[in-house]
Amino acid sequence: MAVTVIRADESRSFAIGEDLAFGEGNGVVLVGSEAGGQLAAFPSASRDFVAVELGSECLAEHLGLEESEDNVRTVGFARFRMGDAQPTRLVELVKMPWTDPAAVEAARACFENAGLTVAVCEDFAGRIVDRLIRPYLNAVLRRLDDGLASAADMDRTLMLGLGYPEGPLALLKRTGLAAHHDVSAALYQQLADPDFAPARRAQVVAARR
Amino acid sequence: MAIGKVGVAGCGTMGAGIAIVAARAGFETIVLDSRQDALDGARAQTESFLRKSVARGKLAPERLDEIMASWSGTTDVRDLADCDYVIEAIFEELGAKHELFAKLDAICGPDTIFASNTSTISITEIAGGSGRADRFVGMHFCLPAQLMKLVEMSRGMNTSDQTWEKAWKFCAKLGQTAVETKDTPGFILNYFLIPFNNDAIRLVEQGVAEPAEIDKAIKVAMGYPMGPLELLDLVGMDTQRLLSEAMHDLTHEKRAACPAIVKRMIAANRLGKKSGRGFHEYGDTKMFGA
Ligand SMILES: NC(=O)c1ccc[n+]([C@@H]2O[C@H](COP(=O)([O-])OP(=O)(O)OC[C@H]3O[C@@H](n4cnc5c(N)ncnc54)[C@H](O)[C@@H]3O)[C@@H](O)[C@H]2O)c1
Questions:
Q1: CA distance readout (Å), A160 to A35, A153, A154
Q2: Chain A contact present for B192, CB below 8 A
Q3: What ipTM does the predicted assembly reach?
Q4: What is the pLDDT at residue A8?
Q5: Which of A104, A145, B36, B230 is at 20 to 30 A from B63, Cα to Cα?
Q6: Looking at the record's lineage, which domain of life comes first (chain A) (predicted)?
């Protein structure tokens, strides 16, 4: 049987109408910004895996902190995407400490069947990519305000020095400072770490929406 | 005919590469080191690099001898007296740099411009002990200098406009791409990179994900050519510790602070690629998740 895909609503990971060839298996992929609301109807006990789409929240918000028969094969996922840009090929696959390793592997195979690349992580706010890039992007915005260098020279330095395909300021401009603000603010709330507090430039753009 | 004379003081990791850049660009290049073996090593390294450039079709064969002829080494600072520019790349120690520049100031002509390749010391501070703070700039090359085009240039507080303009043109004549940055810790590249790499180390420390998963995620999501932990394995944990400590001392920013696991990795000889194991394991050049 084919992996079952249940769409709750609009998803940041998979556009409506996008062909989702997840391959065969007794798994369920719950797609949409409200996908977590469907979890009660899909206990994972009798399935290879249940994968629920996450926003900036932790998987534990849906599963609780305790292991049970119904959640031991449930994982979270989010396809990484910067603001208005197209989703990237990366799927961050979130597991709990007790998640059945076979379920993680089955979910990984399902996303890889769809041509995506999977990185597995534990259930921490910001997962891998947002956790690493948001403080960095805030620092870039703050130092631009400080007059460290022009935006063009900051971008050029990081591209020439590190081989980045695009400078951070061009990236933020292309994908939306307000979107950066929203992710950063959500993580700031969860982590209480001032490096995640949205930089002034992002706050201004968000306030003008 | 050389288009000018460049002195490169210190021919270790950075100086040797900077000297290649200068000689290749057509400058008469004199390289100063206190150790003759460093000079001998740099000369051999220069020749072998240029031979590879010829083999790869990046350099006309007749240029090899020409470039080698314009490259000379010395252990005597007085041989730098008639340089138009001196780029300093000696040990990262303010006292040593002041001592060297004071000697150079005494022998060089009034028009000679001094530059430092320092990574973590303020240009204004080094310039302050050079005897010619108005004719002093920061020129921060990237490793390996002979392959990387970027130079972060900065003015000290007392750098004159005339010096700045001349130095900027000099950088273009070297065939390098200059960016202008303030004279603040880490300039642009290290200011952003050192904390970013420390953050990646903290994800490993906290058990957020395996190193290979972190590297993969960053490369696929951001299109970076290397993951932060792969890059750290090349940089080496010992170097990351020195850089972090220098940056943190200056900025007191918590992301710059060296994560505790780095000290344990150094103690366990997991320095990175050079010791065969860091965040990843290296058998030959193959890379495995740690
Ligand atoms: N290694 C890097 O990646 C890197 C990158 C950019 C900038 N820098 C900066 O470049 C400078 C040099 O760094 P490195 O890594 O090449 O160091 P290194 O230790 O490899 O080389 C320093 C060389 O300077 C020589 N030296 C020391 N004191 C001297 C003196 N008084 N007179 C003449 N020669 C002397 C030493 O013998 C040695 O050969 C430092 O300021 C460092 O911060 C390093």
A1: 41, 10, 10
A2: yes
A3: 0.97
A4: 85
A5: B36
A6: Bacteria
